Amino acid sequence: MVRLASYAILFSGITTSWAAGIPARRAMAVHEQRELPAYFTSAGAPSPDTPISLKIALTASDRDGLEQTLWDVSTPGNALYGQHLSFEEAKAFAAPSTASVSAVTEWLNENGITDITTSGAFGEWLGFSTTISSANSLFDADFQQFTEINGPTQLTRTLVYSLPADLQQHINLLHPATDFVRKINAGPKFRAFKSTNNTARALTAPSSCNTVVTPTCLQDLYGIPKTPATQTSNKLGVSGFIDQWPQTADLKSFLTSLRPDISSTTTFALTTLDGGTDPQAARDAGIEADLDVQYTVGVATKVPVTFFSVGENNNDGDLGGFLDIMNTINAETAPSQPSNWLTCAYDFFPVNFCSVSHSLHSQLCDAYMTAGTRGVSILFASGDGGVSGSQSASCTTFVPTFPSGCQFLTSVGATQDVAETAASFSSAVAAYLKALGSTNSGKFTPTGRAYPDVSAQGVDVEIFSGGEEGTVDGTSCASPIFTSVIALINDRLIAAGKPVLGFLNPFLYANPGALFDITTGDNPGCNTNGFPAKTGCEDPVTGLGTPNFASLLAAALAA
C-alpha cells in the first residue's frame, strides 16, 4: 500500500506535507572511527532522550594557502618575511566558504535541527543540541557512556560516526565524538632545595645557580638584559587551565626578593573565558600559574603580561580551553594582537594512546598556524616524561605528547645546572639521526615531527606560591623563560621599526648558532636511556639549545 500511494503521488504531481517532511536519506560515509582506549571502559548506553550538545567544525576555504603563507611570512630570506596578515586577510584563508556553511546548515535543517549557533574566530563551528537517539540516527553513530579506569573522567562518546558523503569535503570533524582525553598534565611540583656540582660554561653564573635558579641566574646564563622594555604594543600572554590561578601577593614576594630592581607592584592583566576566574586567597595559589607569571613578569622586564584564565565551560573539558584561547586571539581584529606570544606549560596525554583524534589535533594545530600568520608566537612545554611522554616507563615504543608535537608551535625542553646538561625529563634532524645510528630503532618514527625545538633551565627554579618559597622542576619552567627572551627581542624589533618574529621555528632553525648547544644528558623512558644530546645536532632532548640573547637579537635584527 505504501508503494502504491507513493506511486500515485509521484505521477499525479500531488504533494503532501507528510511526503515533503521526510528528506531522502543521503549516502553516508564513515568519517572517523577508533577502538576503545585501554584506559576506558563502557558504562552502557544513555537514555535515548538524553540531551547532547555537539559542534561541527567546517573546513577552511584555503587551508593549504594559509600554511604556505605562514612559511612565507616566517622564513628569513623570503620576500614576504615579516609581512604578517591582518584579521581580514587571515579570514579569507581560514573561514569556511559560504557554500560549506549553506550545505551543512541545509542538511541539519532537513533533519529538524534549526537552532544552530555559530562560533570560532571565523565562524568555523556550527553548534546545536539534540538527543542521543537523534544524534545516533543523524551520524550513524552509537553514543555510549564511558568511564576512565581508576580515574575520574566520565564521557559520552561514540567509536565511529559517519557523514553524508557529499558533505565530507565541507566538514573537518564532529565534536565531541571519538576523543577520549583524560586529563591535563598538572605541571611542576613544589619542593625543597637540593645541591649539585658546578662546572664551566660559555656564559658564567654563580655556583649557587646549581642549587637554585633565579631571574639573576638566567640573566647571567643567557645574557638577558635587565633594562626594561619600552614598547607598550608588545604583549605576552600566559594561559591557565584546571583551576590554576596566579596570586598577586606571591608575585609581589617574588619581585621583592628576586627582582628588587623593578617595582614590587608590577602585575599582570587578566582575561577570563569559559567561566575562568582568578581568586586571590593563598589556598587558591596555583604552582603552575605562579611559576608562569613570575618568570614572565620577572624576566621580560616591563613587557605587559596578560594571564588567560580558562574555566571549564568548554565542552566537557576536551580541547575546548585550548581552542577557545586561540579563537580569542585569532578573532582579534585590531592591528595590535592581544598577545604576541602565548606560553602554555600543559600537555595532553600522548596522541598515540589515541586520546585525541587526528581531525581534532589538526583543528587545534591549524588554529596555531593561523595565529602564526598574524605574528603570534606560540610556545609549549615539551612534557616531563622523557621519551615515555606522560606514561610510565614500561612503554615499548616512545610516546609523543600533545599538542607539543604540532609543527606550528615552538616546543621547549629543559636543561639543568650552570654547565647546562639536558634534564632527564626533557623530550632536528637528519644529522642527528645519522649520528644516532641504530640506537632505539623501531621505537620512534624517524620521519615525524622532531621536538623540542629549543630549551631553557627547568630544574630547581625558585618561585613563591601560597605565601611559601621553594623550587620547582619541569619543562613548564623552561617555556615561560624562553618566551620571555623572545618577548624582549620583539620589544627591540618594534623599537627599531621591524616586525615581530611571529612563528619562531623557521627563524630559529635558520640561526642554530644563535643558541648554546647542549651536548650532554639524555631523556630516559620506556626501559631505555632515551635520546642522548649530541654536539652540533638538533637533538630530541634539548633541540637547538638554550638562548643566547645577544646572538638571537642580532639575528632577528638582521632578518
UniProtKB/TrEMBL annotation:
InterPro entries: Peptidase_S8/S53_dom, Peptidase_S8/S53_dom_sf, S53_propep, Sedolisin_dom, Tripeptidyl-peptidase_I. SMART domains: Pro-kuma_activ. It catalyses: Release of an N-terminal tripeptide from a polypeptide. This is tripeptidyl-peptidase II. It is an enzyme of class 3 (hydrolase). Pfam families: Peptidase_S8, Pro-kuma_activ. Its EC number is 3.4.14.10. The active site is at E288 (charge relay system), D292 (charge relay system), S476 (charge relay system). It is found in: Secreted, Extracellular space. Its cofactor is Ca(2+). One of its GO terms (biological process) is proteolysis. Secreted tripeptidyl-peptidase which degrades proteins at acidic pHs and is involved in virulence. GO terms for cellular component: extracellular region. Residues 1-19 form the signal peptide. Keywords: Calcium, Hydrolase, Metal-binding, Protease, Serine protease, Signal, Zymogen.
